[in-house]
Each structure stands twice: as C-alpha cells, then as structure tokens.
Specification:
Elements: E1 3-11, H1 16-26, E2 30-39, E3 42-50, H2 58-72, E4 74-80, H3 81-87
Helix pairs in contact: 1-2
Length: 90
Amino acid sequence: MNRTIITVVGKDTVGIIARVCTYLAENKINILDISQTIVQEYFNMMMIVDTNRMEKHFGEMADELHRLGEEIGVDIKCQREEIFDKMHRI
C-alpha cells in the first residue's frame, strides 16, 4: 500500500472537504482515515490516503492539490507516509 499524509489548513469556507474529496475520488485515491477540526474560523484536516491505484506520479498529485488549495484559499500539503514518520520521530 502506498500511503500518503495530506494536510489542509486555512480559513474555514463552504466546500473545502467536498473539493478535496472530489479530487481524490477522481484520481482513484482512497481515504483510509480522516480527521478535521475547526478552531474559531480556522479549518484543519489531516487525511491518510492510499495512492496505490492512482495513475499519476506523486509529484503531479501534490502539485495539483497545492493548486486546488490556492483556488479555495487553503494550504494543502502531501507527504509520503515513510517520510512523514521519519520527520516526526522523537
């Protein structure tokens, strides 16, 4: 399984989850786990997804999600799970 961590942060607006999830579904990316919170007017979402069936390269997906984030006014970042784990070890 090719697991990726996706984070979405920004001012809360209508449709953030819908736009991100639509992109993932259109690219055969399965959501394994999702957590989202809103603190006052700030939106924060973390997703663990499986990119095994995705037909694009990782960098292309990451760039497209970044551009999507710019369109909807949030910051979207993607990291492969193994890199995320190594960066966050204590």
